[in-house]
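Researcher: I need the complex structure. Ligand is heme C. Inputs:
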Amino acid sequence: MKCLRPAALAAVVLAAVALPAAAQNANPQLLAFTCQGCHGTAGKSPGSIPALQGKTAEQILALLKDFRDGGRAATVMGRIAKGYTDAEIEAIAKEVASWK
Ligand code: HEC
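Model: Output:
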């Protein structure tokens, strides 16, 4: 088993390097898909998490950047927003604003 470790490590490092590159080309629909797990299908929140439905792309963009930069208090959104580049946040904001 010991001799497999460098190969396993290389695979992990390669995956870590490859992921951000892949994310840059990710489909906005895929990027925004996960938001619905908490914010409800098409952003129509079924519970206490704020709805995303009805917000403009500009509003969502500003909120996400605020969460990411720590300017807006959050339980989870700060950590979520930190996972995206500016380009990804812009793509997500446009996609979420287009939900009907
Ligand atoms: C794990 C659950 C979860 C996921 C996944 C999630 N959110 Fe949130 N979101 C929250 C919670 C909870 C809040 C309230 C602020 C806080 O406590 O973090 C929030 C707040 C927001 C707000 C502010 C809404 C308002 O009216 O104040 C926006 C915009 C937002 N989320 C966008 C998104 C987007 C876009 C995604 C997908 C990239 C996403 N969220 C994914 C849980 C989630």
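Model: Summary of the prediction. Residues 32, 34-35, 37-39, 49-50, 52, 60, 63-64, 74-77, 80, 92, 96 surround heme C (CB under 6 Å).
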